[in-house]
Structures are given as structure tokens and as C-alpha cells.
Amino acid sequence: MSIVDRALNVKEQFLQELKELPYDTHSIKLFKDKYLGRKGLIADLFSSLKDETPQNRPNSGKVLNELRQFATREFEAKTVYIDNQNSKKNIGDHSLPEDPYLIGGIHPLTHTLNEINFIFTKLGFSTVYGPEVDTDFFNFEALNIPKHHPARDMQDTFYVKNGIVLRTHTSNTQIHTMLKNKPPIKIIAPGRVFRNEDISVRSYCLFHQVEGLYVDNNVSFSDLKGVLNYFAREMFGQSVKTRFRPSFFPFTEPSAEMDVSCIFCNQKGCNICKYEGWLEILGCGMVDPEVYKSVEYDYDKWSGYAFGMGIERIAMLKYGVKDIRLFYEGDVRFLGQFI
Fold first, then answer.
1. Are 283 and 255 in contact (CB under 8 A)?
2. Is 64 helix (H, G, I), strand (E, B) or coil?
3. What is the number of other CB atoms lying within 10 angstroms of the CB of residue 121?
């Protein structure tokens, strides 16, 4: 049988087997080696060219080249078709939900705020919100911080224009609430605040606060300590200890700062608590009578307390985060730890 006849037989056999070729990788490899491999049927035909007569050899060589090109082209087209069919099989049911591990989670600051809200809601506090852009009166003057008061040097403010500022604390919400309502008042006021500070590991130009206010008859500092002690134990664990240190805030008198025992070293001393065994978490005090004058409350009849805490500060302590900037960078490697 001539090489041309053998080539025609190989071509027919190739097409028949290609048509019935299974879609698995092993079968495809065996098929390719059988026809297009270095020791395959087409290569075997080329090795027989040496036995052809000089007159027939050019034509036979042409037929074999065309056969090899045809087989290569048909095989590649078949493998592309097989890949497409396999891809369709792997697409799956579009009605099914996505992979649960790709679902986002609550931001750690939001989670911390929700936890704080839940704790104070159990104590009867209502949640109110105030404007982020406010007048100088609500942000400073009504809180016993008049113009040229030294206390204004404690915080760098973003001034907009004509006495309008980006609020430096959520205490402005307390003034709005007291002007619109008569006692008793028992609220917390969460929200964003802005200060013109350098961005660093410990500070940012914006952050979040929660202010608390309770005004009623015969409210005492003991009531304030009881509420904050309950909050600390709910937030950081029942074994946590607290202490109150005298401090100064223009809108409260007397004023104090509250510390909790270091939750990282159990008061043995570490770099987070600066080897003191205590962590500062908030400021508080009894509402100053001058604030009652601003909202036309009778300070002889009403008394109350206020407190304020930074949500970032609480989150950093609770989760052991050492850089406040991580909360704002949107890095999924960081945020994914809280899902």
C-alpha cells in the first residue's frame, strides 16, 4: 500500500476517533500522542518517505504535510470546544447564593458603636443624633466655652465661615436636645467629629464619639459612677476594675476621667498601658450650672451628669488595634478579621 493510501486511512481513522473523543484530560493526551506525537501514526508515515521512489517522494511528502496540518488544526479546534463545554458544566446554578466567605461584614467601628448603644439602651438611654456642621454657639458657647476662653486651645477646630464649624465633639447634640425638650432627659449621642490634628498612629482628623446625658431631679455623681461601672464590665468583662481621676472639662463640674484596668496585662504593666496597669477610656462629670443657663433650665431644680468616649479608642482597646489609621484604609486583610 502506498504512503498516500496509508495517509487516507490514517485521516479517516483520525476523524472517527476525534468525533468520539472523551472530554477528560487523560484521553485527550493519549489521542494526541497517538496521531501527533513524535512516535505517532503521522510521524511513522514521514519515516517511510525514505522508501519512496524519487519520482513519488515529492507528492507523498506534500500529502503527509497536508495531513499533519489538517490533524493539528482539527485537534486544536476540538480541544477548544471541549474546554468550552467543560466551562459551562462548572458555571453552576445561578440561583444559588454566593460563597458565604465572600460576604462582607460589619466594620469594627460600627460593631463597637452597636455594642455601646445596646449597653446604654438596656439602662434606659435613648439614642439621638445632631448636626456635624453646627454654629459656634452649640459647639462652644452653650457648653461654657465662650470666645477667647482658654479651653478652646485644647482642640484645633475646622472653621467653615461666619461662625460655622465642623463640630469638635458630639456634645453639641446635648444642647440641641435640651433646647427642644424639658427634663427628664436620658440620651446618648453618637456621631462623627472633626479636629485639625496631624494624622498618626494615635490621632486622625476625624473620629467618632458617644456622648451621654442624664438630667433629672437629685441626680448624683454616685449615679454616674454606677452607670459607667456597669458599662465597663459589660464592654470589657465582669472582672475589669475601674477608677475615677479628677480632671477638668468646661461643661462639667466636678469632672473626672475614668480608667479601666489593663485588659492586656491584667495590671502587670505593658507597653499598651505604658506600664501603669490602667487604660483611660472616657471623660465625665456633673453638668455645669452655666450649661443649664444656656438652655434655660433651673439649675436649682435640675441636676445631671454627662460623659463622652471615643469609639475608636474603645475599639482599639477591645480588639488590640495599635494604629487608628487601619480603621479608615479599607484594607480587606484587616477588616476581614472582624467578619
1. yes
2. helix
3. 12
Mark residue 318 as left, alpha or beta (left: phi above 0; alpha: psi -120 to 50; beta: remaining): alpha
Question: Which DSSP symbol is given to 37?
Answer: S
* Domains of the chain by residue range: 3-91, 108-128+169-338
- pLDDT confidence tier of residue 243, bands split at 50, 70 and 90: very high
Classify residue 23 as exposed, middle or buried by CB count within 10 Å of its CB (0-12, 13-18, 19+).
middle
Can you give the pLDDT at residue 111? 93
> What's the Cα-to-Cα distance from 236 to each of 138, 232, 264, 307, 317, rounded to whole Å?
33, 6, 11, 18, 9
Give the start-end residues of each E strand in the chain.
126-127, 133-135, 159-161, 164-166, 185-194, 206-216, 242-249, 252-261, 278-287, 303-310
pTM of the full structure: 0.67
Q: Is 233 helix (H, G, I), strand (E, B) or coil?
A: helix
- Cα(220)–Cα(307) distance, rounded to whole angstroms? 13
- At 10, list the grid cell: 490514517
Summarize the confidence of residues 5-13 as an average pLDDT. 90
Q: Give the CATH fold of the 108-128+169-338 domain.
A: BirA Bifunctional Protein; domain 2 (3.30.930)
Residue at 92: amino acid letter: G
Between residues 318 and 114, the one the model is more confident about: 114
The pLDDT-based confidence of 259 (bands split at 50, 70, 90) is very high
Mean pLDDT of the chain, nearest integer = 89
Quote the CA–CA distance of 128 and 214 in Å, as a whole number. Answer: 13
Segment among 83-97, 131-145, 298-312 with least mean pLDDT? 83-97
CB 23 within 8 A of CB 86: yes
